[in-house]
Q: What sequence folds into this?
């Protein structure tokens, strides 16, 4: 049953060194503040899972928190490369990063399998590509009814799923909307789930088919306004495209990256202080 | 004749490929530019689907990321990422997959994974994303990319997404449902697969582009169709729509504030 706690307490209590952690978010609602807290608490040897690792995974990788990355597209969306990710893959800095690489379709199906209590997912995928040659977790099987060949990948079952959402109520039920990515599946596939939210309200007032995560599938709810910055929270603030561009520069050089992280993340107490320290003004939503 | 750049010719030529009313699964970057230009010009009823979940997105500016808020805000509906890939793509609902590429070979196979060896890459690229299954499942695939010798290679360092495999009936033997790439649009020309061998053949040169320019920018001895034509230059209204779209996009993405402001 969801407990409403501080983000610091939630990360300390629910994430252990060596855990498999999925901080999900598909461009929208990326749990950036929670990622910072993993770095502040110096969590180590994590296996990070995410379809679209971007800036926050670049930071976790660059700070040496990750042992392995399970992913399907790793880049700075609309800008280019993730330099800390590339440095880890190309040069083993600050430590070698084991890769388990999929396509979006396969990894999305792997979350669905995890959420569905299955051990693997089956889909039409990968025929003729080089990915199965480098990922032994991509295998093939035949349909027992028609004999058609399908790809199979193991279910994703994270120790901890971490997502950001717009709202929770005081009992810990969570509501999110807009681009949903695989957040619902990640929470349902995981043993424990941490949800940061923009605000905690009396009533969610959610329409019947809205994406609501009932409190019995959520372990901790933490109020962190702007907690998805530099990604966005629909209805609250816009994507900070300038920060994504700025990150290209900050992260290009090992020393500059490290100094920036120490100054703005390690030496700040929480996300609000980080935003002030880094001089960030979260952009409002653009009026259409 | 109105002056236009090679990038403008590429965007317009790519946009023209989209027939009105088709359902198009759109990659970010050049494909998204072309697809939205089509929607704003000759194909107002085209349905744009992005892998982040929006179906029927009608953005007024080009998205910077595959999941910009305006895609969701202007869509007919927004579904989850598993649903996009399971019901809509794997379910066979997509007419056109519109993709970009870092590297492409003569059979329209695509690399977006690594330059060099996978385990010790020279350049680690972002990876597959949704492309392998879009390339496999869409009824047809359009590919748009700049024409350089680094991009058009004799042999891919990594096959991320399959075009026509090793040529001929390769796709059928792999069991891939869609027809694969039917056109490649570049800033120099159009290439289409030979009906038998499936090797990409130059079928149209953009205005002012010479054969040897294309040959020099292609890493294999590229063939030219017997009935090679010259692409119609962009019309004033196509150019105006594209330039307006780019101007609105720059204004929209420039006005958001961030670090240091």
A:
């Amino acid at each position: 049953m969801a407990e409403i706690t501080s983000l610091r307490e939630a990360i300390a209590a629910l994430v252990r060194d060596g855990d498999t952690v999925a901080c999900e978010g598909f461009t929208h609602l990326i749990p950036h503040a929670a990622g910072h807290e993993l770095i502040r608490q110096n969590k180590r040897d994590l296996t990070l899972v995410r379809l679209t690792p971007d800036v926050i995974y670049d930071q976790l990788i660059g700070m040496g928190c990750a042992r392995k990355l399970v992913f399907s597209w790793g880049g700075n969306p609309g800008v280019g490369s993730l330099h800390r990710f590339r440095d880890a893959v190309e040069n083993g800095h600050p430590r070698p990063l084991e890769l388990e690489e999929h396509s979006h379709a396969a990894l999305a199906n792997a979350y669905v399998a995890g959420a569905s209590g299955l051990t693997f997912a089956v889909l039409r995928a990968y025929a003729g590509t080089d990915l199965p040659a480098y990922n032994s977790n991509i295998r093939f099987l035949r349909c027992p009814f028609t004999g058609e060949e399908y790809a199979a990948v193991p279910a994703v079952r994270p120790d901890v799923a971490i997502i950001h959402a717009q709202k929770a109520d005081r009992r810990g039920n969570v509501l999110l909307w807009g681009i949903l990515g695989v957040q619902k599946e990640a929470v349902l596939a995981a043993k424990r789930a941490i949800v940061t939210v923009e605000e905690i309200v009396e009533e969610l007032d959610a329409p019947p088919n809205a994406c609501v995560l009932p409190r019995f599938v959520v372990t901790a709810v933490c109020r962190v306004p702007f907690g998805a910055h530099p990604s966005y929270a629909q209805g609250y603030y816009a994507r900070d495209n300038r920060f994504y561009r700025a990150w290209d520069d900050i992260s290009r050089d090992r020393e500059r990256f490290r100094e920036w992280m120490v100054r703005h993340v390690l030496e700040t107490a929480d996300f609000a202080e980080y935003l002030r320290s880094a001089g960030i003004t979260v952009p409002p939503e653009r009026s259409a | 004749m109105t002056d236009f750049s090679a990038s403008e010719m590429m965007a317009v030529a790519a946009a023209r490929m989209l027939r009105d009313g088709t359902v198009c699964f759109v990659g970010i970057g050049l494909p998204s530019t072309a697809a939205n230009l089509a929607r704003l010009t000759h194909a107002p009823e085209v349905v744009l689907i992005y892998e982040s979940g929006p179906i029927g997105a009608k953005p007024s500016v080009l998205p910077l990321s595959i999941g910009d808020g305006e895609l969701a805000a202007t869509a007919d509906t927004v579904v989850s990422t598993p649903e996009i890939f399971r019901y809509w793509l794997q379910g066979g609902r997509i007419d056109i997959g519109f993709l970009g590429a870092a590297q492409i070979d003569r059979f329209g196979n695509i690399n977006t994974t690594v330059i060099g060896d996978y385990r010790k890459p020279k350049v680690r690229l972002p990876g597959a994303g949704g492309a392998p299954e879009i390339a496999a499942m869409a009824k047809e695939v359009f590919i748009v990319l700049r024409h350089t010798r680094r991009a058009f290679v004799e042999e891919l360092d990594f096959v991320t997404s399959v075009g026509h495999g090793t040529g001929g009936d390769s796709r059928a033997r792999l069991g891939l449902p869609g027809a694969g790439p039917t056109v490649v649009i570049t800033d120099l020309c159009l290439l289409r697969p030979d009906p038998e061998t499936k090797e990409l053949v130059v079928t149209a040169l953009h205005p002012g582009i010479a054969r040897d320019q294309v040959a020099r920018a292609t890493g294999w001895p590229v063939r030219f169709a017997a009935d090679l034509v010259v692409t119609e230059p962009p019309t004033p209204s196509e150019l105006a729509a594209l330039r307006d779209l780019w101007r609105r996009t720059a204004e929209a993405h420039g006005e958001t504030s961030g670090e240091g402001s």
